[in-house]
Design brief:
heterodimer, A: about 575 residues, Jelly Rolls, 7-stranded antiparallel β-sheet, 22 helices, B: about 280 residues, mainly alpha, 10 helices, disordered N terminus
């Protein structure tokens, strides 16, 4: 990660906590502790006011404070303060010039582009111009901050769960930090003490913040929140490297596939806790015939078993508890928070507005409190009124992504397309198979399209093999140089070609086969070869959403028949809306 | 009109079509009123309509340039296609008003008229086929990329050969092998006929499957099973040919329409130069 990490630095780190107390025996010979510190860490010396991580950025590393202190800003800062600007795009002239000067051979590079220079270090991927916070004192005055001192870790949640940073961290006093790549963090978690420390750290610093972000808990008094925080349990289901099992699970029938998914809660069981999805995906299903029918899929922030718990809590007289009407299963991997039912009943439900409860729970309350004749009148009145437009951030919609199109829902979950934030979808009833999208992609990417117009088909929709810019980009697992990373602001997964060693790990890790290894050629079309092995130099290629092009994604711009779109499949609404327009 | 057709407006396709037709009709009406005023003010309506047509032809050919400069944010190509369709409809009305008869007299003028009509008809054919062909292709059991069809055809030949090679040498196997050699293999290795490209039919498939079914009585269960697999390959080949024909037609149409449009533009410019020359003299 940092070529300047010397043996002395590693030895010095071994004297500091938490590395001093780590058990070297917990690490296999292939990945010794010293090796992790040397290859997956780098030392940073930061000035006061320097922004270390920005809220909303995608980061692939955690930071440990070795000396000095940093401040975590608990509320959002204005984008301008954080040095956020427009993504640099080519000007019209530059774009046309680049097209005009394009080599007639695909993936042609000049000799400078394939020669490793001094600047092509792994660390250079994450390097960006240092940002200093303007008027640091005013920020301290106007925002709640949390001071982290030596031995404290931050950024580990975003790094481990491949999620955006939850808060901005600014250097308070001149600080020495160690940045640990998430690959290193994953290896360090093999030490049970370190893993426990990580969990304790999350519980101490982040759990409360995450609980506050749940719309259901937004009006909770502080003392109730304290009790909720103390009672909340952290659980994980499935494997975080779920891509390893994905291909095998694809060979199973849909019925076997759903049965093979780790069960978080079973239909019919009495609810014991309110489950909040922290990261990953889960699906709710109901027994239908001799199989399971998918009802919805849940992502970060969604709740499970709220309806049943609310009904149980709102019963005027103690009756038989209501069993879970659906099962919850991890789709690949899911990380959850469990709030015990007693705490929900005592500290949450009394502070939740009835209108914020799930529709079924509201119905239950209304039915139990109205006479039969009133009920009939009410039903008629309801039929005559239009349904309200739901705000996606409301509690009501926090119970998952539902859809009337059950088959489509099943398909999306079965193929794990719900991971795609920018999935390429083609309406086959409009697509003339002209391949203008492919040609446009090739025009903007060195004469080589970054996707194949093939993919799984459901009804009239084809989900094309183009990088979906996944919410959980498992392709980043195992990249030895960190060449594949997320753009800090847009979340687009991109490859830093100068440090891509062409090992193909990302291509093998991508469960959707959306990364392709390509040989790079000179301007005459001859492949560059490795000096030692004589083999062609390969580079990983994938869709980059045409971030540098003034037109945006060329595939969308080029489709003559409105057949192609890039769509967020982590929610059901965008796809349903797109289909309604057809 | 372009504002109505802008991609960002969230109209359904039906709503967009209605709005575009309404806008086109309004423009036609205004243009016809304009032509009337030119006429009553003793102006030359043929110049008025001719200039309009030439401008339309320029605008219609610009879509080709837009497709090449895809990296520039000049509205999506689908928006351009919508503008192209309704401008072309307007141009048809302008043409009817511009010409004294649908096919003008004189060699050069009649060539120009024919070119306009051919390009217009091809445009309407393209509109129809680009809306109907996708559904026909989607209805097929597999979706194959045009550039991969040849590879899939080769795979069918390989699969058929393997199927026969796996059968033990028996008299009924020879019946199937002989049928394959004489009827099926020539079909598998031959390219798609031009007539089929123009009008795909299932005649060949039905002939082969019928003949194969007739051989049933000469085969035992094992060879009959192989014959069933061969029948599946014949169906697959037929589906591939169908996909090829439809996709080929769509591609050939784009090339022909673009080439004829360019020719029409050049001829129209020449016509305009002649007219200006004649007016000058």
């Amino acid at each position: 990660m940092d070529a300047s990490m010397s043996d002395a630095d590693v030895a010095w780190l071994r004297t500091r906590q938490p590395f001093a107390s780590l058990d070297t025996a917990a690490f296999p010979k292939s990945t010794p502790l010293e090796g992790i510190l040397r290859n997956d860490c780098r030392l940073m010396r930061c000035e006061p006011g320097e922004v270390v991580v920005r809220e909303g950025d995608y980061g692939s590393s955690a930071f440990l404070v070795l000396a000095g202190s940093v401040r975590v800003v608990m509320s959002s800062l204005p984008a301008a303060n954080l040095g956020r600007g427009e993504i640099e795009k080519l000007s019209w002239g530059e774009a046309v010039r680049s097209w005009w000067n394009q080599s007639k051979h695909a993936e042609a590079r000049s000799i400078d582009q394939v020669t490793v220079g001094d600047e092509a270090r792994v660390g250079s991927v994450d390097d960006r111009p240092t940002i200093f916070l303007q008027d640091f004192a005013a920020v301290l005055r106007n925002h709640e901050t949390l001071v982290l001192g030596p031995g404290e870790l931050f950024g580990e949640v975003a790094a481990m769960y491949r999620t955006p940073r939850a808060a901005t961290v600014i250097v308070d006093e001149e600080a020495t930090l160690i940045e640990i790549r998430w690959q290193g963090l994953r290896l360090l978690r093999r030490d049970p003490t370190f893993a426990l420390q990580l969990e304790q750290h999350y519980r101490e610093h982040w759990l409360r913040q995450h609980l506050k972000e749940i719309p259901l808990l937004r009006h909770l008094p502080e003392d109730c929140l304290d009790r909720v925080e103390a009672a909340t349990e952290l659980h994980s289901f499935g494997r975080i490297e779920w891509n390893a099992d994905f291909r095998k699970s694809q060979t199973l029938s849909p019925r076997e596939q759903i049965e093979s998914e780790p069960v978080v809660a079973s239909e019919g069981d009495y609810p014991t806790s309110l489950i909040v999805v922290r990261s990953g995906f889960a699906r709710t299903s109901r027994i239908h015939g001799s199989g399971h029918q998918t009802i919805a899929y849940l992502g970060s922030g969604h709740l499970f078993s709220l309806t049943e718990i609310a009904i149980a809590c709102l019963q005027e007289e103690p009756q038989r508890p209501v069993g879970l009407r659906q099962s919850l299963r991890a789709v690949g991997f899911v990380d959850t928070l469990h709030i015990p039912i007693e705490v929900v009943a005592a500290d949450i439900i009394p502070h939740v507005r009835r209108s914020e409860l799930p529709v079924e729970a509201q119905e239950f309350v209304r039915r139990s409190r109205t006479a039969p004749t009133d009920r009939r009148r009410e039903v008629r009145a309801r039929e005559n009124t239009k349904l309200p437009i739901l705000n996606p951030h409301d509690v009501v919609t926090q119970t998952g992504n539902h859809s009337d199109r059950t088959a489509q829902l099943e398909f999306l979950v079965q193929h794990r397309l719900i991971n795609g934030a920018e999935a390429m979808v083609i309406d086959l009833h409009r697509c003339t198979r002209c391949d203008e999208c492919v040609k446009a992609c090739a025009t903007t990417h060195d004469g080589n399209p970054r996707f194949v117009r093939e993919g799984v088909i459901h009804d009239r929709l084809q989900f094309v093999q183009a990088c979906m810019q996944c919410v959980d980009p498992v392709c980043m697992i195992g990249c030895p140089t960190g060449a594949i990373h997320r753009h800090a602001e847009t979340g687009v997964v991109q490859i830093q070609e100068s440090i891509c060693v062409g090992c193909g790990v990302c291509a093998a890790s991508c469960p959707y086969q959306n990364i392709r290894m390509m040989p790079v050629n000179d301007t005459q079309g001859r492949p560059y070869r490795d000096g030692k092995s004589g083999l062609p130099i390969m580079k990983a290629t994938k869709c980059d959403m045409c971030q540098s092009q003034p037109s945006g994604p060329a595939c969308v711009a080029a489709c003559p028949h409105d057949a192609l779109t890039r769509i967020n499949l982590t929610e059901t609404a965008p796809l349903l809306h797109w289909l309604e327009q057809r | 009109m372009s504002t109505i057709l802008t991609h960002s407006i969230s109209l359904s396709f039906r709503g967009r079509r209605r709005a575009s037709i309404a806008a086109t009709l309004a423009v036609i009406l205004m243009w016809v009123v304009g032509a009337y005023f030119v006429d009553v003010s003793l102006g030359r309506t043929s110049i008025y309509s001719g200039v309009t047509l030439l401008v339309c032809l320029f605008a219609l050919t610009l879509i080709g340039l837009r497709k090449r400069l895809i990296m520039l944010p000049l509205m999506s190509v689908s928006t351009w296609v919508q503008i192209h369709i309704y401008t072309a409809m307007f141009a048809c009305v302008a043409y009817v008003i511009h010409v004294p008869s649908i096919i003008a007299n004189g060699y050069f003028e009649s060539v120009l008229s024919w070119l306009f009509i051919v390009v217009s008809v091809s445009g309407f054919y393209g509109l129809y086929t680009s809306r109907t062909a996708p559904k026909r292709l989607t209805a097929l059991s597999t979706q194959v990329r045009y550039d991969r069809i040849a590879w899939h055809r080769d795979q069918i030949v390989i699969a058929a050969k393997k199927l026969l090679d796996q059968l033990p040498e028996t008299p009924d196997r020879n019946v199937l092998a002989s049928f394959y050699q004489t009827h099926v293999q020539p079909h598998f290795v031959s390219p798609v006929k031009f007539l089929y490209l123009m009008r795909p039919t299932t005649t060949k498939k039905r002939q082969l499957l019928g003949a194969l079914a007739d051989l049933d009585r000469y085969m035992d269960a094992r060879v009959r099973q192989a014959a069933g697999k061969l029948a599946a390959l014949i169906r697959t080949r037929d589906e591939l040919d169908y996909q090829y024909a439809i996709q080929f037609r769509l591609r050939a149409w784009v090339i022909l329409h673009a080439a004829m449009s360019l020719l029409l533009l050049v001829t129209s410019i020449f016509h305009a130069i002649l007219v200006l020359g004649w007016m000058g003299s």
